[in-house]
Amino acid sequence: MGERRAKDALFAEFAAVGKVLGSPRRLELLDLLAQGPRSVEELAATAELGTSTCSAHLQQLRETGLVTTRRVGKRIYYALAGDDVAALWATLRQVAQHRRPHTDVARRAYLGPEDTEAVGTAELRRRLEETDTVLLDVRPRAEFDAAHLPGARNIPVEELAGRLAELPRDAEIVACCRGRYCVLAHDAARLLVEQGFEARRAVDGALEWRLAGLLVGT
Amino acid sequence: MGERRAKDALFAEFAAVGKVLGSPRRLELLDLLAQGPRSVEELAATAELGTSTCSAHLQQLRETGLVTTRRVGKRIYYALAGDDVAALWATLRQVAQHRRPHTDVARRAYLGPEDTEAVGTAELRRRLEETDTVLLDVRPRAEFDAAHLPGARNIPVEELAGRLAELPRDAEIVACCRGRYCVLAHDAARLLVEQGFEARRAVDGALEWRLAGLLVGT
DNA sequence: TCGTCATTCCATCAATCCATGGAATGACGA
DNA sequence: TCGTCATTCCATGGATTGATGGAATGACGA
Which residue, A27, A177, B137, B157, is the most exposed by fewest CB within 10 angstroms? Predict the structure, then answer.
């Protein structure tokens, strides 16, 4: 009886998903896609990959079923197949953070010093309701447009230094971005504090809020 | 600035966890470990692996931080590092089931025909409280001892055919095992029904109940 | 119909991974 | 102290994977 063979086939299916999660590059692409659909060249540029390489990785993600494609004009947009994939990605990060001490070292090295104050999601929502806190989403416009917290304003970090006049000096500003391992909010909060604003950064970001069902599209 | 380098290092940490999930053999070991601690040779025998091969896989799991080891006498027991790892494994399976159509084909090929009636966890708990349903855990004794649902009785499948006299003919029997992708309950329920018992099988098993915090140890 | 442009295919090289069996390790028990 | 036994180490060969650049594909727009 092919019981062993059948079991191997089943576990090979599971392993196919695992295998595709085994490359830093693919995870980076997955992280970007968790923010919203993107074309190959956008992804290649953002992830600093060659187009061929990026395409090859995306195809592996697609063959495994984690992402889907849609053609618009002469571009092909890749998107996460569903929120369960985002949940898997979040769980993977959580396990790494929990079980691999070095993850936290790498996280700190990437995000920079913890010199700005962090605001948790519960606290953030309270402040948005009860005070005139400004929620500043500093992700690229495309990602903001795809989905963001209700009431958030968008100024991409690259533009932030030149658009300080748009921000209030008499209210608290909370910067947010892609999620727990994204630099953008750190950078933004740091810049704003240097410029004399009363600024903090959100601990969570679009990925976590997406999983909690808090986001709205445009 | 080594921003790219730092980001790569962070994502390499995440990918290390993904990479170790990319082998069917390791996933099988992980699945077994989700049932409770086991020695290398037990694992090798159950997963039908050579000892060296098994040891090598276990070490990768350990280096990645997903499992821990403990020495007892001349044996080394491997165990899951925590419930978050079990949750990751469950999420991975769920995504595969959801996003890879072939998973269900492989699942059916392995588990055999769906000729016995399935009982979900909510319904199972209701029946255990309100009727005199017998919950029959058909996993190996070691796994049952490590953790099981309160009130369950243990008869490993191998022994089942010879111990039918211990089971009531006037009450419903629900067979349970490791989880959604385990054959044992299917085999047991099939055998019992053939023998004229009023038998069903639980949809969920130890893995799912562990994550729901329903298990008790010995 | 043809040029353009985004994406994919292809061939290649270097690197990594897996399974295997025999030797080495290292803790227990006499 | 020494034999035993579970586990790990090591060397090997076969297979897979990732990055890369140039060629091919295929849809759009003139």
Answer: B157
Together in a domain, A78 and A115: no
Residue B216, domain member (yes or no) = no
Average pLDDT over chain B, rounded to an integer: 95
pTM above 0.90, yes or no: yes
Residue B1 has pLDDT above 60, yes or no: no
- Let me know whether B122 and B38 are in one domain: no
User: Are B65 and B136 found together in one domain?
Assistant: no
Mean pLDDT of all residues in B87-116: 96
Q: Is A22 on the interface with B (CB under 8 A)?
A: yes
Tally of CB atoms within 10 A around A177: 29
Given an 8 Å threshold on Cβ–Cβ distance, is A91 in contact with B95?
Answer: no
Q: How many CB atoms lie within 10 A of CB B90?
A: 19
Q: Please report, rounded to whole angstroms, the spatial distance between the CA atom of protein residue B73 and the C1' atom of nucleotide D2.
A: 18
Q: What angle do CA A209, A212, A216 make, to 5 degrees?
A: 60
Strand pairing report for B38-39 and B75-80? antiparallel
Sort out which chain B residues have CB atoms less than 8 A from A96's CB and list them: 13-14, 16-17
Residue B71 has φ and ψ, to the nearest 5°, of -95, 130
Domain limits at A169? 111-211
User: For the residues B52-64, what does the mean pLDDT come to?
Assistant: 95
Helix/strand/coil for B181: coil
| B171 part of a folded domain | yes
Domain-ending residue, one of B86, B102, B120: B86
Catalytic-residue membership of B177: yes
Domains identified in chain B, total number: 2
Q: What is the dihedral of CA A5, A9, A15, A19, to 10 degrees?
A: 100
Report the pLDDT value the prediction gives residue A74, as an integer from 0 to 100. Answer: 85
Residue A12: which of B13, B24, B26 has the nearest Cβ?
B24
Which candidate in A14, A91, A92, A211 is best for mutational testing of the B interface (most B CBs within 10 A)? A14
CATH assignment at residue B45: 1.10.10.10
| B33 occurs within a structural domain | yes
Average pLDDT, integer, range A33-41: 95
